[in-house]
Specification:
40% helix; ten-stranded mixed sheet; alpha+beta; Immunoglobulin-like; protease; Neutral Protease, domain 2; five-stranded mixed sheet; 26 helices
Length: 924
């Protein structure tokens, strides 16, 4: 999300509002809101003039004497002739009023100077009237649309998205998470629509002023932060669910997609029940609505009682959505409903601790989905996926701590990233595993009960968990959670533990340092982590024991305490540290230990190493080879064992790493050797899974379905076996169907691969056929699959045309989906250079198109940064970014990371390219 600062336009006094001298980024603390009465009129009938307007009465408690009221307002027209201020509590009621107003455009402050001083202990009511166009910019209060296929007409709806700081675009308010208050919301709208908000309807009736309009008043909410306020005016249908505890649960979508709500309507209540049981706290609201919004910029938003989703995250069609789509949907719903407790019931005091809700919800969602769908075996997969994500991002010097200072609004938006979500989740999982189930759950419950309807900081969570752990003895009395966990949340990065064994004395010396991808930077003095050490040996093979046998500790000055492990096995046996990757760190062993591990992996006994640790060894050794700490000969000997591997996790780990090498090597003359090596390791598993043939219904384990989907994708890219001809045959059969929008013979789980392969090897008419299917499809997941496949063409003119279509609002690609289409073009060999040039030539129009949604622009950088690998191109792109600052405002962190990633590619090419080529030739 991107923030463009505009002065509040005021009317009434006929004078320009002066700029304020108050310039701190946080609101003053002299006042706090104790109740909002919000009235909103929404006009959706006239497509030439979409507008909203209304009034807000804010009851304000004065904590310290003050001569002004400072709140947030952004791009709202405020009718200052209608502004009133009255004292409503206390014995000596005195009239008050507003004498003048000022704005601070940098921080969106609207400052009202009062005629009399506001007195501590008194309560005042401020009334403001406001209006604004109802824009399509996907933040604040905005409009979205869909096409009614029967009438062939565009239908309009309105929806809010306020997180992190966009409530101020919808009404004047104290727009910080620490200012919780109850809200009474009243919506006025045309009678053909429905009104929804956080709470159930209290009463509805005819509007007093506008014919054919209704006025709907909602029950007063519980105290909540402004970013959780939500309302919508729409003509949607809903699917009700039944809950045993009386909570009303409804799933809403446009009428022509209501048949895709079944899974979410069935799954959502199970999630709610799981959390009620897990926390021992009943869901505090009388209802939950979840709504699929056609235009939505993120995955979903946890507004209390009215959870909003992009359509791919809530709608599921058994005819069009893959198992992967279904699992993503389940994860998102479980994540958003976890927030109803972590985030909504207890809210972080300030965005510094965003992870307190996002990291926690990410982790709790993995537990919840595993509980409801154990047959998916998704807990290990999600945990590994989170770790792989952060091992990459957090090895950048330009990464940031989980809990980070936030000094302006654009920094809040940048915090919604893998560090807050995936690393936050990974350190919670670490803590869960070293504390045990009872202490972990009791600590969470105690925290929620203690801070319900209030705000908290991470120290409050640490305190609750320490008390719970000491009470049952799962943490030594001289250890506390704060000391341990601060080392993970307050400093950037993660450690690599270097294990050097002494095979004679059967000991190992352990040292730690921050792991960095940039090999030009010294790792010395880069931090110290409290590391719970679990480990096992070739003889013991006790991978299920994730409790720490020892700890690596830090001194009070942040220096690592040297560690020696005793009683290890002799020279013929390996040891593995970090059972089941229970803690986010990497492990590098001495040469002998790697040799022993390679022998086991490349033998019939490879499964004696736990599947998660097999994935760990692959990820670690490929990272170390990338940064030059291991030779590629060692790394390729480790991954050569994959010819035997039939489990999902090690393959995911390998593919995630090889994808990055592939994007550089495929632009070089050595690609033929790399391709031959990959064909050699992929062929056995491809054949084991019966290739691209539709055997999915016969596969009993769901994670094997995901494995087959992943392997087939790589097999077609590298022309393994019959993959390409079979894919083309599926596509031809689909094209031959009389009604291809109703009947699709391509197996659902390999559609993305079949479509992409057929567009890559196909004709112009194959592309046009798929583009037509996109325009006619009614299923968001299918539309996303098609959008991605259309970028697979190798025809320059088609890709150029597609790039132009992506950013043309009239062509039917929604703004929230455009990044997928651009990434699809930029990821391919042919498309990369075209997409890079298009991005550089059109940065101004692209910036205008996204209209301050800065997150979207940073998403376009992702595929570009992975494929630049020469110093010349690095310097050129660096200069371009420097020259384009005005269009990239708010993306400073993303730009820094982009340049660092490109630099590590350059380093890899200069250091490793020849070595990799030699290592591959030895194995072919």
């Amino acid at each position: 999300m991107k923030w463009l600062v505009l002065v509040v336009i005021t009317i009434g006094f006929g004078l320009a509002t002066p700029i304020s001298t108050y310039n701190h980024y946080r609101l003053p603390t002299a006042l706090r809101p104790i109740k909002y009465d919000l009235h909103v009129l929404t006009q959706l009938e006239n497509a030439d003039d979409f507008r909203f307007g209304g009034s807000v009465d804010i009851r304000i408690q004065v904590l310290e004497n003050s001569n002004n009221i400072t709140l947030h307002s952004k791009e709202l027209t405020i009718d200052e002739t209608a502004t009133t201020l009255r004292q409503i509590g206390g014995e000596d009621l005195k009239d008050n009023c507003v004498s003048s107003t000022e704005v601070n455009p940098e921080h969106d402050f609207y400052i009202l100077r009062t005629c009399r001083e506001l007195l501590a202990g008194q309560v005042y009511k401020l009334s403001l009237r406001f209006s604004s166009p109802l824009s399509d910019r996907l933040e604040g209060y905005y409009r979205s649309s869909y096409v009614d296929p029967v009438a062939n007409e565009t239908r309009w709806i309105s929806i809010t998205h306020f997180e992190p700081a966009s409530a101020r675009l919808a009404f004047p308010c104290f727009d910080e998470p620490g200012y919780k208050a109850p809200f009474s919301i009243t919506l006025r709208y045309h009678k053909k629509f429905t009104g929804l908000s956080n709470m159930p309807v209290k009463r509805t009736g005819k509007d007093d002023f506008l014919p054919d309009y209704v006025r709907t008043e909602f029950q007063e909410s519980l105290p909540m932060s402004t970013y959780l306020v939500a309302y919508s005016v729409n003509d949607f249908s809903h699917k009700p669910s039944t809950l045993p505890n009386g909570t009303l649960f409804r799933t809403w979508a446009r009428p022509n997609a209501i048949d895709q709500c079944g899974y979410a309507a069935e799954f959502g209540p199970k999630v709610l029940n799981y959390y009620e049981e897990f926390f021992g706290i009943k869901f505090p609201l009388p209802k939950v609505d979840q709504i699929a919004v056609p235009d939505f910029n993120i995955g979903a938003m946890e507004n209390w009682g009215l959870v909003t989703y992009r359509e791919t995250a809530l709608l599921y069609s058994s005819e069009f959505s893959s198992l992967k789509d279904k699992q993503e949907l389940a994860n998102v719903v479980a994540h958003e409903l976890a927030h109803q407790w972590f985030g909504n019931l207890v809210t972080m005091k300030w965005w510094t601790d965003l992870w307190l809700k996002e990291g926690v919800a990410t982790y709790l969602a993995t537990l919840c989905v595993e509980n409801i769908h154990p047959e998916w075996r998704s807990l290990e997969l999600e945990s590994l996926a989170n770790l792989l994500s952060i091992f990459r991002k957090d090895s950048l010097e330009s990464s940031h701590p989980i809990s980070r200072p936030v000094g302006k609004v654009s920094q809040i938006s940048e915090s919604f990233d893998a560090i807050s979500y995936d690393k936050g989740s990974s350190v919670l999982r670490m803590m869960h595993l070293f504390l045990g189930e009872e202490a972990f759950r009791n600590g969470l419950k105690s925290y929620l009960n203690r801070y319900a309807y209030q705000n908290a900081e991470q120290d409050n969570l640490w305190e609750s968990l320490t008390q719970a752990a000491h009470k049952i003895g799962s943490l030594p009395k001289d250890y506390d959670i704060k000391t341990i966990m601060d080392s993970w949340t307050l400093q950037t990065g993660y450690p690599v533990i270097n294990v050097t064994r002494d095979y004679t004395s059967r000991t190992a010396n352990l040292s730690q340092e921050r792991y960095l991808l940039n090999s030009d930077v010294s790792r010395a003095h880069k931090g110290c982590w409290w590391v719970p050490l679990s480990y096992t040996s070739q003889e013991e093979k006790d991978f299920n024991n994730t409790a720490p046998k020892e700890w690596m500790e830090c001194t009070e000055t942040g220096k690592s305490v040297p560690k020696t492990i005793q009683d290890l096995p002799g020279p013929g046996q390996w040891v593995i540290f970090n059972n089941q990757l229970s803690t986010p760190y990497k492990v590098n062993y001495d040469a002998q230990n790697w040799k022993l591990l390679i022998e086991t992996l490349n033998s019939e006994d490879y499964q004696s190493i736990h599947v998660v640790n097999r994935a760990q060894l692959i990820d670690d050794v490929l990272f170390f080879a990338w940064t030059g700490e291991q030779d590629y000969e060692i790394a390729l000997q480790v991954i050569s064992y994959l010819q035997r591997e039939r489990e999902l996790l090690p393959w995911k780990s390998a593919f995630d790493n090889l994808k990055l090498v592939n994007r550089i090597v495929r632009q070089t003359s050595s690609f033929e050797f790399f391709k031959s090596f990959l064909k050699k390791i992929i062929t056995p598993v491809y054949e084991h899974l019966n290739g691209i043939n539709d055997t999915f219904s016969a596969i009993p384990q769901q994670d094997q379905v995901l494995l087959k989907t992943m392997v087939v994708n790589w097999a077609c890219q590298y022309q393994v076996g019959d993959c390409v001809p079979q894919a083309l045959a599926y596509y031809r059969n689909w094209r031959a169907e009389a009604n291809p929008d109703e009947k699709n013979p391509v197996p659902i789980n390999v559609r993305s691969t079949v479509y992409c392969t057929s567009i890559k090897h196909g004709s112009d008419s194959d592309w046009e056929f798929l583009w037509t299917r996109y325009k006619k499809s009614n299923v968001a997941a299918e539309k996303r699959t098609i959008l991605t496949a259309l970028g697979c063409s190798r025809e320059v003119w088609l890709l150029q045309r597609y790039l132009e279509l992506i950013f043309d609002a009239k062509e039917g690609i929604r703004k929230g989906d455009s990044k997928w289409a651009f990434q699809a073009v930029a990821k391919t060999e042919v498309g990369f250079l075209l997409a890079k040039k298009y991005f550089m030539d059109n940065i101004g129009p692209i910036s205008d198109y996204y209209n301050q949604l800065i997150k979207s622009i940073s998403r376009l950088l992702e595929p570009i940064e992975k494929q630049i690998y020469t110093r010349k191109d690095y310097d050129e792109f660096k200069q371009f970014l420097a020259d384009s600052k005005e269009f990239l405002e708010g993306s400073e962190e993303a730009i820094q990371q982009t340049l660092e990633i490109i630099l590590t590619n350059v380093q890899w090419r200069e250091r490793n390219y020849d070595q990799l080529t030699r290592a591959i030739k030895l194995l072919l």
